[in-house]
Predict the 3D structure of the following.
Amino acid sequence: MEGQATLYDYGNMDTEQMRVMLRKVYMACSDTEHPDWDEYDQAMIDQEAVIVLIAPKRVYVSTLFLTHQEMKTDGLKFKQLF
């Protein structure tokens, strides 16, 4: 993948904005909500979590794992978080 990467952490973000962004990232990767959001928020602070968002300019796909039909019908799907 090629593109512009932006890093977000508690050092360059308002605490509340970072909390909301981390929850959005979690939900984008999960089918269910976290069972204890307060615990999750504290763990992200304790672990000094960083979010890396990439605005893709080019995406390279290995066709070794995709059939022609899959490439034609499914393609790549990106989820916009923010």
Remarks:
- The CA atoms of residues 10 and 45 lie 8 Å apart.
- The helical segments are 15-29, 37-46, 68-73.
